[in-house]
Write a structure and sequence with these properties.
The chain has about 600 residues and is of the alpha/beta class. The chain is built from 15 helices and 29 strands. The chain folds into three domains: about 220 residues, Rossmann fold; about 160 residues, 3-Layer(aba) Sandwich (Rossmann fold), CATH 3.40.50; about 180 residues, HUPs (Rossmann fold, 3-Layer(aba) Sandwich), CATH 3.40.50. It has a ten-stranded mixed sheet with strand order 11-5-4-1-6-10-7-8-9-24, sandwiched between helices. It has a seven-stranded parallel sheet with strand order 18-22-17-14-15-16-23, with helices on both faces. About 0% of the residues have low confidence.
Amino acid sequence: MVAMRVLALAKQVPTLDSFILADDGRMLRVGIPLEMSAYCRRAVAKAVEIARASNGRSMVASLGPPQAEAILRESLAWGADEVVLLSGQEFAGSDTLATARALAALVELEGPFDLILVGRSSLDAETGQVGPELAELLDLPFASAVRHLEIDPEMRSARIQCESDDGSRIMKVSLPAVMAVAERLCAPAKVSSELWQEIPSSSVRRVSAADLGHFGPWGAVGSPTSLGESKYLETKRNALCFDGPLQDQVEAAIYALNLRGVFDRSTVVSDGPVIWNEKTWDSGPTISVLCEPDRPQFSQELLGSALALSVAIKGRIAAISAQTEDLEEMRSWGADEVVRVEGGIVEEDFAAAVTEWARFQEPVVMLAPASYWGREVASRIAASLGVGLTGDAIDLEIDSGRLIAWKSACGDSRHVAILSDSSLQMATVRPGVCRSAKVRPGAKKAVYRTVVAKNKGRIQIEAAWRDDDWELLAKADVVVGFGAGVKEEDYGQIHEFAAVLGAELAGTRKVTDLGLLPKSRQIGITGRSISPRLYIAVGLSGKLNHMVGVRGADTILAINTNRDAPVFGSCDLGIVGDWRDAVPLLAKRLC
C-alpha cells in the first residue's frame, strides 16, 4: 500500500454556549471558552487514521490567532504527526475567500498532499464555502459531507458515500482531492485538556504571511465581502401559555387556533407579490439564478427573490440550469432568459461552465440555493472570479444598486448585513425563507440559450438516491416538530399524531443525530427553515438555534412539561403538560 500524506484543516471556534457577538457583528473570541469545531474533529481523526493505515504521515493545520495553537496541541495528542499554525495580523478580517487563499498558499508551501480533509462547515459560520473555494484555487476535485471513505492509493482514487440534502450519492473521486467530512464519518478527535496541555507549545510550527511568498491578498484587504449594519429581528408571538387541567388547556388551544383561522383554507396567504407586469424594460443589468437539478421549489423561490431585486435595479433575470426546463414554467417564475448547461452534471463542471458564461455576460448578482450543490457551485465560481459570496442568506435587498444579503448571526436574534465590493455579488439563499412570487401570465417568452460544460472526469457518480423529499416539508401546511423530550420508543406515537393531522414531521438536531428522522428534517440554524401555517413543537426546549428555523410559521403551538422552557417565549400558544397525555387529546379534537 502506498504511503499517503494527509492534511486536515481545523478551525478554533467559541464553544456552542459561548457564541457572543460584538457590536460590529463579529464573533467575540477573546476571554471566552474556545475549542476545535465539531466537524473539524472528524477531519483530524480521519486524517490520522488514513495516514496510519498507509504508513504515511498526517498534518493538521489551522489559520488563526496564537491561541489557536491549543487545537493543534490537541491534534498532536490525538496522534497527528505534525501541526502548523498559520497566524499573523495580515490575516485579520479574512472572509471565506481570503481564508481559502491563505490556506491554498499554505498547501502549496507544505505540500504535496494526497488528500486534504476539512470540516463540512464551521459551527460559528455554517457557510460550507472554504472547502470548495480551496479546491477551486488548487484545481482539485471536491466532495462534501463524506460519510464513508475507502481509499485506493494504488489507483489514486477514493470511493465515497456523500450525504446530500435529503439522500446520498456514491462517487469515485480522483486523488489528490479536497473532501469535507460529515458528522457520521467517524468518531471525533477529542482528548482531555490534561493530555494535550502536556504537549509543549514548541511542538507547534508557526508560519507567517511572509513565509507564503507572493500569494494573496488576504485579510480584510483581500476580502470582497464585509460586514454592514446589524438589526434585531422582532418575532411577534402571543406567548399565551395556558394553565389548569390538561383537558381544559387543550380545549382552550383548539378554540384559539380556530380564532386564528389556522384551519380556514380561505385565509391562505398569497405565495408572494404579483409584480411581473411592473416590468416594462427589455434590457438592463443581469441577475442570474443557479437552478439545482430536480429542485423546482428551490428554483422558484430564488427566481421570486430575483424578480423582486430586478424591479429595484430594472434588471433582467437569467435562470441557469443543467436540465431541459419547461421554458413556459421558468418564464412564469420570472426568468427572461434560460441558459442550459449541457454536460454539467457534476458540480465542478457546471461551475466551470457558468464561470465562463459570467466572464462574458457580466451579471451583477448571482443567487444559488444554500444546499450542498449550491454551496459548491457558488463557491467555485466565487473563487475563480475572485468575487464576494455570502452564505446562507435569509433575506435580500437592493440599496443604491448594490446587493445586501442578510444572514442570521449564529442563531442570535440579530441579523447582520453582508456587503460585497466586487462587480458580481453572490449569495446562497437558505431554502424556505423566501416566498415564491406569483407571476401573471401573458408576458413575452423567455430567450433560450445553451452553453457546453467540459467534463474534467475527476468525479464519477455511481449511484444517487433520496431518503426523503425535501419539498414535502417545504410545502406542508402543518408540521409536528419534536425534540429530546420524545424518547426513541415513543416515536411511533408522534408519527401517528402527524398522520392524524395530515402533517409532516420535523425535529431538532438531537433527533436527527439519533437517526429518528433524516437530516433533511432537521430545523434550525444547522438545519433548514420552514413556513407552515401551524408548527406544533412537542417535547423540545425551544432554544434559539432551533426556533430560528420556524420564524416564518403563521402559528406555533408548544407542548412542554416545563413552564419555564424557552419554547413558551417563542410560541403563540402553549400547553403545559406531558406531551404523551396532551397529544391524544389534541388528536381526538383535530381529526
